[in-house]
Amino acid sequence: MLIGTYTHTGKSKGIYVYDYDLLTGDATLKSSVESDNPSFITVSSDTRYVYAANENGEGKGAVSAYALDAASGKLTFLNRQLTQGDSPCHVVTDREGTHVVVSNYSGGSISVFPIQPDGSLGAMKQLIQHEGSGPNRDRQQKPHVHSAFFSPDQKRIYVQDLGTDKINIYEYHPESQDTPLVPALHPYAKSAAGGGPRHIAQSSDGRYVYLVQEMTAQVLVYRQDNGKLEPIQEVGINEDGFSGSNGAADINLSPDGRFLYASNRGDANTLAIYQVSPADGKLAKVGNQSVLGRGPRNFSISPDGKFLLVANQNTDEVVVFARDSKTGLLNDTGNRIAVGAPVCLVFASL
């Protein structure tokens, strides 16, 4: 398991690699590498390479490539490319390992890099600048690209823009030398006005897309049909009666697709738990679970679905929950991983 952190806090130095015991939920530190604000990381499908978004401003936003040694867990720096967009906050690679796509939050843009045979990143191939704004004058004065996710069939990529209340949809053409991302026939889907799209989760067949909206702490459910996203349901993350500030962050489906989880920071610091209808993909609220800390910016479910780990950024630890596969409910294992400002958790089978 890899953990990305914010290093500007002075509490951490970069990326941390752990052995994670799927039987007990215990984590043992294997290695670490210095990296500048690696706030989001991804691992190639063959687990040989790691790519990290270096969330910096003032023209210093970058993406870094590392080789990952399966035996030792050691990360070896390969190279770094500037994203030409400030505050890159998300990075993803396609299943075949041909490109890396970086979302630039402050820059409001997407950067696409080819992956070289040795895992390093080539010169940027494509930069897509978003335009527009949203109704919230404080948060949506311009585009804020927050994430990009490939569809399960790898034919499309969904790009969430908090600033414009849109999921921008692109066709993916990895063979293209200049424009691997091309606006789709249905180029975008709207979120709720002022919702602030952040991350999505997708059913394994790609029929349903679940969007977490940062500013309203609502989950919007879409039905996907030939690349068009149709909204079919919107449900709240917070418990009834909650009146504090929101900062909804991450969203994930359980490996079996039966339960969905979404985190909210702000004054809530909880995970919402939903059961997913196999008939129509809609959600039924099961309950809320305290994250036992503050600032759940990211969380991850172990590949076997037995554990859910929450990166509590503001309390400098990862909290390990055991997950009931029948009910979706979570129980505190008592296990903690102490790390400064953890903001991204990624499992990799070595």
Task: Give your account of this protein's structure.
Helices cover 0% and strands 53% of the residues. By secondary structure, it is mainly β. The strands form seven sheets. It has a four-stranded antiparallel sheet with strand order 3-2-1-28, with no helix packed on it. Strands 4-5-6-7 form a four-stranded antiparallel sheet, with no helix packed on it. It has a four-stranded antiparallel sheet with strand order 8-9-10-11, with no helix packed on it. Strand 26 and strand 27 form a beta hairpin. The chain starts with a strand and ends with a strand.
Attribute tags:
carbohydrate metabolism; Haem_d1_sf; four-stranded antiparallel sheet; globular; Lactonase_7-beta_prop; Lactonase family protein; single chain; mainly beta; 350 residues; 28 strands
